[in-house]
Amino acid sequence: MSKKSLLVVQSSILADNGQSNVLAQALIQRWQETHVDSEVKVRDLGAEPVAHFDAATLAALMSAEEERTPEQAAVLAQSSQLIAELQRADHLVIAAPMYNFAVPSQLKAWIDRVVANGITFKYTDQGPVGLLQNKPVTLLATRGGMYKDAGQDFQIPWLKQVLAFIGLTQVEVVYAEGLNMAQQREASLAAAQAQIAALDL
Description:
By secondary structure, the protein is an alpha/beta fold. It has helices at 19-34, 55-62, 70-88, 105-114, 155-165, 185-197; strands at residues 4-10, 38-44, 91-97, 121-124, 127-130, 136-142, 170-176. The chain has one domain: 3-Layer(aba) Sandwich (Rossmann fold), CATH 3.40.50. 38% of the residues lie in helices and 21% in strands. Belongs to the azoreductase type 1 family.
């Protein structure tokens, strides 16, 4: 039997001081307690950013493999590696702080690399179809203010939509809101930690 695999995508620019990364580490510990003999891959986009999607990347994708320059091959090799990590994982965790009402640009760059026509989705006469084998996804959403119930959350609905587009529909969200509000911070973090401890991993 192959080892279970956890892929954790972190996107905070604050390293260990980022609360989304703190929650990610708590989930990793919970996972390792449940799956003693398992693999954990942490893709830290804050420490090692992924190149943003650009015209050069598009040109590489549209070029025949035998005609690609070494630079184009390198660009697509990174995309292939990220997609392989995602395909291999049994459980995906995305730690997403809110920056200016959206996900960090580092996370958007990762999304643009793994949403790939013909690999993680395809177009059909009935519309797009996700090609990834469905698997559980946990989103760790940290915010300085209170957005979830205020009609101002553009982050999690977008993440759920793009994940469903590539075939991932089993999504659970752990929220930690009000982290810049003195009366909310500790209670919100404690509630998020308790939710992680109770996850069915």
